[in-house]
Write a structure and sequence with these properties.
The protein is an all-alpha fold. It has a domain of about 45 residues. The protein is about 60% helix and about 0% strand. It has five helices and no strands. α3 crosses α4. The longest helix has 13 residues. The mean pLDDT is about 90.
């Protein structure tokens, strides 16, 4: 996703199309909570790196939408 987003960067200059991505990692959702229960490696990974809240992901998207400098 990151490479694809970077490849489209020039669209901002040529067509005024902004392309951004939010790479949130693990988000604290029911799906991830179930993965933690069912998959030991997922639990270990999240214990090491943590996860973000849904609100943090939403706020990242809002920032991208509102701030034209984040192109």
């Amino acid at each position: 996703v990151i490479g694809f987003t970077q490849a489209l960067r020039e669209l901002n200059d040529t067509d005024k199309i902004r392309v951004n991505a939010v790479a949130s990692g693990f988000v604290n959702t029911r799906l991830v909570q179930n993965m933690i229960k069912e998959t030991p490696i997922t639990k270990q990974t999240i214990e090491k790196f943590g996860f973000v809240s849904i609100d943090e992901v939403i706020n990242a998207y809002i920032a991208i939408i509102e701030d034209d400098k984040l192109a």
